[in-house]
């Protein structure tokens, strides 16, 4: 009779790191760049170092907790998708109970960090947690679950404004709309990688909903996000370097459309993985504009 191997502490730690996608930093960077841009835009200068630390660590921790929630919710679906079949929970190497514990610990640490801000930011954090928990389950019934992911990935923006200004002005919400559109663009590229598997198992994604208009839809999402971010720059009084950051982001968006035009998996995955550079370009544009033009 076979017995399950006993995991060493090192083996278990490796599984925890795999659960939170430690070796794939693109995911949390996609969340981080808009939050940092929001901090700089809200401050109009270099943000306070304590807020930089809180939001950088908090973004990483909440995205990691979200990965645990996602894998718990999708464990039965993931076993039928080649790319996800060996994830720790789906493969049986990590129990659901352990994954829940990991997610709770990460979310709790993130909440402790938020307690060092102000009541408005703390209140918004509950909304962020709720949407993060809801998102994985929307893939069962909602035609565009990537929009819900966009909301989850955008909550750090109004929280950043709230932490700096103790209010959430209109420009923050324009930044949110642009970020949701960006998430729709890059996560539709990601969904195109697994479209055949998702169709077979009954998963709902924007790539399936858009069908043959997927590439056009992604182009529209990119255009909308850049238009919103341009308008944010106008409202915030940002200048040349901010516009150059947007120009660099636009050039990358065009390149991504070239990569996905034939809808092959490798091209779509390359486009998705490269999106964090687009976000970094926008953030660098904000940083340079604030530093050099005030």
Give your account of this protein's structure.
- By secondary structure, this protein is mainly α.
- 77% of the residues lie in helices and 0% in strands.
- It has helices at residues 9-19, 26-43, 49-73, 75-78, 96-114, 119-138, 145-154, 156-165, 170-193, 195-201, 206-210, 214-236, 240-260, 265-293.
- α2 packs parallel to α8, α6 (119-138) packs antiparallel against α8 (156-165) and α13 (240-260) packs antiparallel against α14.
Order of helices and strands: HHHHHHHHHHHHHH
Characterize the main sheet.
none
Mean pLDDT: 92
The percent range for strand residues is: under 5%
Based on CA atoms alone, the radius of gyration comes out at: 19 Å
User: In DSSP terms, counting alpha (H) and pi (I) runs of 4 or more, how many helices?
Assistant: 14
Termini Cα gap: 71 Å
The number of E-state strands comes to 0
* Helical/strand content category: mainly alpha
What proportion of the residues is helical, as a percent range?
A: over 70%
> What spatial form do the alpha-carbon principal axes imply?
globular
Low-confidence blocks of residues: none
Provide keyphrases for this structure:
single chain; 77% helix; 294 residues
Task: Summarize it.
With 294 residues, the protein is mostly helical. The chain contains 14 helices and no strands.
List the helices and strands and how they pair.
Blueprint lengths: L8 H11 L6 H18 L5 H25 L1 H4 L17 H19 L4 H20 L6 H10 L1 H10 L4 H24 L1 H7 L4 H5 L3 H23 L3 H21 L4 H29 L1
Helix pairs in contact: 2-3, 2-8, 2-14, 3-5, 3-6, 6-7, 6-8, 7-9, 9-12, 9-14, 12-13, 13-14
